[in-house]
């Protein structure tokens, strides 16, 4: 019996040693498959376990180059644990652990231009022409079974959408979404400061894969009549009138 245990251990360590030499380019092929080619890993070097590269979003934006490290020993207990950090400790950054039906993310931070992020998500052209910078931060976020615990903060600074004419853009100001884990979902409030419009809404994403964003957007008082009409025309293309000079916009993704 001890002989078979020893043989099994040798085979396991040999397989692990081979896996540790797997090239980092394998990550690029996996990301490309999952994103239908809209996200890639450029100039990947090193191995799957210790490598570096730059995440690229179609049609042509790349995050700063970053390095990742995966710990090999936790794999023996069925857990994948590692960290990601940009050069000199800059963004993007995160530490994570996955295994045993749980997921944990800590000290995560990333910023991406809104148009690059939305195009990678495959949204409509109207939304894909968005402007501004989207940043996501989380101190500690965990998923155990169907329970989510933690908080996520999203900031969309300098947000804007295309208007009814090329020379007209709708300035959304600085949009913020603060979400907290409640049961099997992240639930958050949506609001903004500044810009041509006022935004009030909510967002929800569950462990089943479904998500929903609902907001009422209305032109701010005090802007000139012509611009107000142009903004209303742009919002009408995205949502339905709410009967109080605002427009109700809903986006939903079904469970996967």
Q: What's the layout of helices and strands?
A:
Layout: H1 2-20, H2 25-34, E1 39-46, E2 50-57, E3 61-62, E4 66-71, E5 79-86, E6 93-99, E7 102-113, H3 114-120, H4 125-128, E8 131-144, E9 147-162, E10 169-182, E11 185-193, E12 197-206, E13 211-219, H5 225-236, E14 240-241, E15 247-253
Antiparallel strand pairs: 1-2, 2-3, 2-4, 4-5, 5-6, 6-7, 7-8, 8-9, 9-10, 10-11, 11-12, 12-13, 13-15, 14-15
Question: How would you portray this structure in words?
Answer:
The protein has 256 residues and is an alpha+beta fold. The protein has a domain at 101-253. 20% of the residues lie in helices and 52% in strands. The protein has helices spanning 2-20, 25-34, 114-120, 125-128, 225-236; strands at 39-46, 50-57, 61-62, 66-71, 79-86, 93-99, 102-113, 131-144, 147-162, 169-182, 185-193, 197-206, 211-219, 240-241, 247-253. A hairpin with a 3-residue loop joins strand 1 (39-46) and strand 2 (50-57). It is globular and about 65 Å long. The relative contact order is 0.08. Residues 1-18 have low confidence and may be disordered.
């Amino acid at each position: 019996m001890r002989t078979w245990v020893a043989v099994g251990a040798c085979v396991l360590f040999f397989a692990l040693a081979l896996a540790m030499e797997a090239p980092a380019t394998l990550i690029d092929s996996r990301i490309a498959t999952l994103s239908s080619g809209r996200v890639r890993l450029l100039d990947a070097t090193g191995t799957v376990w210790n490598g570096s590269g730059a995440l690229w979003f179609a049609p042509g934006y790349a995050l700063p180059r970053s390095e990742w490290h995966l710990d090999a020993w936790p794999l023996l207990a069925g857990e994948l644990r590692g960290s990601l950090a940009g050069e000199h400790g800059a963004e993007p950054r995160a530490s994570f652990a996955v295994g045993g039906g749980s997921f944990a993310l800590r000290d995560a931070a990333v910023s991406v231009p809104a148009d690059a992020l939305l195009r990678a998500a495959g949204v409509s052209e109207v939304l894909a022409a968005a402007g501004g910078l989207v940043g996501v931060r989380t101190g500690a976020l965990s998923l155990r079974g169907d329970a989510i615990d933690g908080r996520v903060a999203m900031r969309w600074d300098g947000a804007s959408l295309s208007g009814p004419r090329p020379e007209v853009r709708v300035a959304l100001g600085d949009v913020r979404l603060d979400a907290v884990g409640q049961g099997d979902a992240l639930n958050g409030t949506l609001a903004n400061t500044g810009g041509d419009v006022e935004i009030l809404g909510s967002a929800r994403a569950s462990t089943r894969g479904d998500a929903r964003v609902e907001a009422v957007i209305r032109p701010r008082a005090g802007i000139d009549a012509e611009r107000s009409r142009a903004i209303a025309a742009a919002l009408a293309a995205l949502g339905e009138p709410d009967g109080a000079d605002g427009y109700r916009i809903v986006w939903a993704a079904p469970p996967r």
